[in-house]
Design brief:
It contains one helix and 61 strands. The chain is mainly beta and 733 residues long. The longest helix is centred in the last third of the chain and has 8 residues.
């Protein structure tokens, strides 16, 4: 503030220091620009009517004399004196406390803390000493103690700087993200708040009342964007001001540093709210955003509403940890610690229902809990335990099924267990409520039923006999291949999109018992980040026995999407093995794409191979090393049926046109299954017919076409049958 009562925001800009009159916060006015070295970041601190600015762009410490505002400002550069004369070129951050300037992250020594005395003449700092054990990214000083954020060492250090010429290390403490960015003390000096400049890391609240026994007491993630870390913390009257990544400014009530409650938030720019200062005489908060510039906020410091208590077992009275405590109708939740205690709260008062849940205990909801601003509401709860049990039996005989997989899911809790010798299972590892129980075993079809947990009587799951796998459980499909990315994995699909089309599926086939399937490259991200690259990946089923089937059919759902040059021939092959021979059941490539969809397939096995007791199925997909084509595949709901599953699926069999290898060099093989071919013709891309063969009823055989006379390129193959015309692209290499 100047002699006329005007307030100013001092802003680090890319090419210097901007001095902005913010007396009228609705109409900020740029008054002066002090040139300095170009830099992406700049730190400014004040002492009296002087401003000190550091940057890693070089040029030393810029000192600005502000006493002549609003008319003019003066500036000079300090590059060190005495023992460091002319050596101080850059500094990452700085602090000014009790008449001393601290420069952190300089280019002198390890980049610890350079200390300069301002008492005699703030315009001409005097070198007083140096702490140089570790690099210091930023620091906070109170009562001759420096709390140093040592980012490269993943810790903060407590340093006695009462003797500026000989600072002494007192203690160190690892921070939650082990990448400590900045620190700030609570008003009573009993707690230290820290930030880590790593996404998904929280503000740490440390009890530092005894520096020989520093303890992390609380962590705080921003409510709206918990994956975006706070960049700096500043403290005013037991409130934390938090400029953050994700471009937001939040305010946290830290009256109880062991129960931090966010009371306000505001979006700023597009990337990072760099810093904020709540220390103007007016109380207004100024904040800077990398993408949004200067923001001026009216202060909002309203006490939070606190909810605290203890949760115990209703029978034993023992404390329960990991109990989820939710304030329903809000996003607020907490968990009890090993003593059974919990602490949480919300910004605004009201009447709420509070839910307490833990696997193995009946969920309890306490209705009508009144929460008031600035008040700690105490709520202790007792939970009753339970065991959920059941049995898995063979549907045809009622006999127990030993070692069957069972999954019990209730809300967000889930557990996988096995049945014992009597087909029984039990668990206390899920929450109470309405959910689902799924069971299966290789050699049976799966069964999924709705259940209520706990149940008055044991549930029974009846498994039909059959060969089936919807990949809820792992039955030992083997993986092979040499692809460098995008290999097969079993799990819930993470979708990717290209030009509006689903490239990798975002869900499995929806009419089975689970959300899992086999999928190639399931890392998400861009559509080509984790697709199949430079080689093949293959899954092969466990052995299955078809000798008890009179007319077995192979059924499955598959996903195939290739994008790029069709001449490279990236291809999906699905093959049956019977122990002595193999047969290609389906081949898919650019001539038979199905982008963005799961496709149902059904085939009569005896049309391809003799069914035996030693059958296997393999799913093989290959990306040619030279292609660079994005390529994805999925496989789900594998099952063997006695006879065809439906008329529609049977039609799928009859209408498939197989062309292989495709691309081809000289010879192309075609097979249309049970349909009768009357004419086979090939057209170039100008629709000119370049090949024709009359067959008059080709059926149930593979025909070899000698197409060596064709030039390299893309063609259309058409097969005229008794009922329709089949067509597809072929590629001559």
């Amino acid at each position: 503030m100047d002699s006329l009562g005007n307030e100013y925001a001092l802003i680090g800009a890319g090419d210097g220091i901007a001095i902005v009159d913010v007396t009228d916060p609705a109409n900020p006015l740029l008054k002066f620009t002090v040139p300095a070295a170009n830099s992406l970041w700049r730190e400014l601190k004040t002492y009296g009517h002087y401003c000190y600015a550091t940057t890693e762009g070089g040029g030393g410490v810029t000192i600005v004399n502000l006493q002549y505002l609003p008319d003019s400002v003066q500036s000079k550069v300090y590059t060190g004196d005495g023992a460091i004369a002319g050596q101080l070129n850059r500094g990452h951050t700085c602090a000014v406390t009790d008449g001393y300037l601290y420069v952190f992250g300089s280019d002198i020594g390890q980049g610890g803390a350079i200390i300069a005395d301002l008492h005699n003449d703030p315009w001409n700092p005097e070198y007083a000493g140096q702490y140089d054990l570790n690099y210091i990214h930023d620091g906070y000083i109170r009562n001759d103690t420096l709390w140093a954020g040592e980012i490269n060492d993943g810790q903060f250090s407590v340093i006695d700087v009462s003797d500026k010429a000989n600072p002494v290390l007192i203690a160190t403490q690892v921070t939650p993200g082990a990448f400590c960015h900045n620190t700030w003390l609570s008003d009573n000096s009993q707690y230290l708040f820290t930030t880590d400049e790593i996404g998904g890391t929280p503000v740490g609240s440390f009890d530092v009342s005894d520096v020989s026994n520093i303890q992390l007491k609380e962590t705080y993630f921003t409510d709206l964007m918990p994956n975006e870390e706070v960049h700096n913390v500043r403290v005013l009257n037991d409130f934390i001001i938090c400029p953050s990544y994700g471009s937001q400014l939040t305010i946290v009530d830290a009256t109880n540093p062991e129960n931090l409650i966010e009371i306000a938030s505001y979006p700023t720019g597009t990337f990072l709210c760099w810093d904020a200062s709540p220390y103007l005489p007016s109380g207004n908060i100024i904040a800077t955003d990398v993408g949004g510039g200067l923001y001026i906020f009216a202060p909002y410091y309203v006490p939070a509403c606190y909810l605290e208590g203890n949760v115990t077992d209703s029978i034993s009275g023992f404390p329960l940890n990991n109990v989820s405590v939710k304030i329903l109708s809000t996003q607020t939740q907490a968990q009890t610690i090993i003593t059974g205690d919990y602490k949480t709260g919300i910004a605004s008062p009201g009447t709420f229902d509070i839910e307490f849940s833990r696997p193995g205990y009946v969920t309890k909801v306490i209705s009508g809990v009144v929460l008031n601003s600035g008040v700690v509401t105490l709520l202790d709860v007792q939970l009753a335990s339970f065991i959920f049990s059941g049995q898995v039996v063979e549907a045809s005989t009622g006999n127990p099924v030993q070692n069957a997989n069972v999954r019990v899911k209730v809300n967000t809790s889930s557990v996988d267990i096995f049945t014992d010798v009597n087909g029984n299972f039990s668990t206390s590892a899920v929450n109470s409520g309405n959910g689902e129980a799924i069971s299966c075993k290789w050699g049976f079809n799966s069964k999924c039923i709705n259940v209520t947990v706990p149940s008055a009587v044991p549930v029974v799951l009846q498994l039909p006999d059959g060969i089936y796998d919807d990949f809820t459980f792992d039955y030992g499909w083997t993986l092979a291949g040499n692809a460098i990315n995008g290999t097969w994995e079993r799990g819930e699909p993470v979708g990717t999109v290209f030009t509006g089309n689903a490239f990798n599926p975002d869900s499995d086939v929806v009419d089975d018992c689970s959300v899992e399937c086999f999928i190639t490259g399931n890392a998400g991200g861009l559509f080509n980040d984790d697709d199949v690259d430079d080689g093949f990946t293959q899954i092969t089923s466990p052995l299955f026995d078809l000798t008890s089937y009179s007319d077995p059919y192979l059924n499955y759902e598959r996903w195939f999407y290739e994008l790029g040059n069709p001449n490279y021939g990236d291809t999906l092959f699905i093959t049956l093995y019977n122990g002595t021979s193999s047969a290609l059941v389906e081949m898919a490539n650019m001539s038979s794409p199905s982008p963005g969809t799961w496709v149902s397939k059904s085939f009569r096995i005896s049309d391809f191979i003799v069914p035996t007791s030693t059958m296997r199925l393999s799913v093989y997909i290959e990306d040619k090393v030279s292609s660079g084509n994005p390529l994805e595949c999925g496989f789900d709901k594998f099952r063997i049926s006695e006879g065809p599953l439906s008329v529609n699926q049977q039609a799928t069999i009859e209408n498939d046109l197989f062309m292989f290898p495709n691309p081809f060099v000289n010879e192309l093989k075609i097979n249309i299954g049970k349909l009768k071919a009357n004419n086979i013709s090939i057209y170039d891309m100008t629709c000119r017919k370049v090949y024709e063969m009359e067959k008059n009823g080709l059926q149930d055989e593979t025909l070899v076409l000698n197409l060596s006379s064709l030039q390299q390129g893309t063609y259309i193959l058409k097969v005229t049958t008794d009922t329709n015309i089949l067509s597809g692209k072929i590629f001559r290499l």
